[in-house]
Amino acid sequence: MQVASATSTFAMFFSASMSVVQYYLLDRFPVPYAAYFVVVATVAAFAGQHVVRKIIAILGRASIIIFILALTIFVSAISLGGVGIEHMVEKLENNEYMGFENLCHHS
């Protein structure tokens, strides 16, 4: 189990790092802004890990991690979907370009 966890952690870290490198090379990466988020994310990760360990100790079940993860993904999906729908409705009301072309007029 620990090998799988270490492998998935490395893959996630590597993937995120490559995205950071790409943004940096394209000069689309504000370093002070990113440094702030690194500090905030690190503090949040340690605090979250501490809280989850306490909850596991109280409940005696590690399955709470799965429920927390599922809830986080659900809230994220609903939030992102809501924001996307809001932007789409706004563009439709303003007759703005949404990236779609008329397929009938292409030769």
From TrEMBL:
Magnesium is among the record's keywords: no
Key words, A-Z: Membrane, Transmembrane, Transmembrane helix
Residue runs in coiled coils: none
CC annotations in GO: Cul4A-RING E3 ubiquitin ligase complex
Bilayer-crossing regions: 34-52, 64-85
A GO biological process held by the record: protein ubiquitination
Sequence similarity: Belongs to the 4-toluene sulfonate uptake permease (TSUP) (TC 2.A.102) family.
Protein name: Sulfite exporter TauE/SafE family protein 3-like
